[in-house]
Amino acid sequence: MILKVHKASDRGNADFGWLKANFSFSFGNYFNAERINFGALRVLNDDYIKGGMGFGTHPHNNMEIVTIPLKGSLKHKDSMSNKWIPLEVGEVQVMSAGSGIQHSEMNNNAEEELNLFQIWILPNQENLEPRYDQKAFSVSNRANKLQKLVSWIKDSDDDSLKIHQDARISRIDLSKKNNYNYVLKNKNYGVYLMLIEGEILVNNVVLNKRDALEIEQAKQFEIEAIKHSEILFIEVPM
């Protein structure tokens, strides 16, 4: 097993006034040659957006984009005729940019700050027809058990959202002193673990809020919750 810790304080960042962003990987004006990607995972941004502000219309192509609101409300519109669809905490959004799409993402509340994760995953097929989907996931369904949010479009055996890559994004909320054993698809895959809240122990490594851990060449690994903890897993081919 290969483990690499990324402390929250070591992330790249930007402050545009209306947007405060934290970058797990090189993005925009932040460049770190040692943090370009993790397998098929290209971007994990932790964005804080002021009330009424957001990203104006801009293009994407050939990227699987996943958005997870953590606080507040988002609204989305795009060139596929979707007009200001709200996205709330508890919901997840996927957008396959494919051959090309224009979209805009705004804070849906004029007064409250919005916090979200935006995840970009490289697709295993390019120039496909763009697609959009979103879904609500119950918090109770991830209490001390894994809740799959996103998976490969060829996997039809669950209710997760789908992308054009053999990857999966999952969450779990572990109560204090509880353990969970995460099993990977195979050793050719890796997991990027982001601790949303709490404190956990993984293979004698302690992680705190917004710390991350790269895990490679492992069949499985065990997590112990030192405190009540919310954990995000992004498992991708390496």
Automatic annotation (TrEMBL):
The keyword Metal-binding applies. Pfam families: Pirin, Pirin_C_2. The keyword Metal-binding applies. It comes from the Bacteria. Keywords: Iron, Metal-binding. Binds 1 Fe cation per subunit. Residues 154-236 form the Quercetin 2,3-dioxygenase C-terminal cupin domain. GO terms for molecular function: metal ion binding. SUPFAM superfamilies: RmlC-like cupins. Its cofactor is Fe cation. CDD domains: cupin_Yhhw_N (cd02910). Residues 16-121 form the Pirin N-terminal domain. Fe cation binds at residues 58, 60, 103, 105. InterPro entries: Pirin, Pirin_N_dom, Quercetinase_C, RmlC-like_jellyroll, RmlC_Cupin_sf. PANTHER family: QUERCETIN 2,3-DIOXYGENASE. Belongs to the pirin family. This is Pirin N-terminal domain-containing protein.
